[in-house]
Amino acid sequence: MAVQPYDPENIFAKILRGEIPCTKVYEDDHVLAFNDIAPQAPTHVLVIPKGSYTSYDDFALNASDAEIVAYTRAIGKISKEAGVVEDGYRLIANTREHGRQDVPHLHVHILGGEKLPRMLPGA
Ligand code: 5GP
């Protein structure tokens, strides 16, 4: 049983249905990626599966092999296309309350384009 039911009214579900615009950077049968509306680095892309998954654990445990391969490959392609691979970048998947996830549809943030602050305060 899912830890958390999927809310079809979340903002990324609306983007997937075309009800809210986005600046698309990549799309295939299983994946959509677009620029974050409030970028926290020169490159800040959100990569989402098209399926209704709330979090990375939900996706990893319940998505099909085809979806998982497509998502993983897409993150590689988008990172390369964004030009952040050589100097480096950060992937973040905030998850539920303790992870401070705001939008309950799985998204991986790709952040790069400059040297980022350390991940956690004091780390
Ligand atoms: P979370 O805190 O859930 O990991 O990240 C949600 C992200 O979605 C935030 O970085 C926020 O700026 C972004 N976001 C929220 N609403 C929209 C929107 O309508 N369009 C886009 N492109 N990004 C959004």
TrEMBL record:
Residues 11-123 form the HIT domain. A motif (Histidine triad motif) lies at residues 105-109. InterPro entries: Histidine_triad_CS, Histidine_triad_HIT, HIT-like, HIT-like_sf. It comes from the Bacteria. This is Histidine triad nucleotide-binding protein.
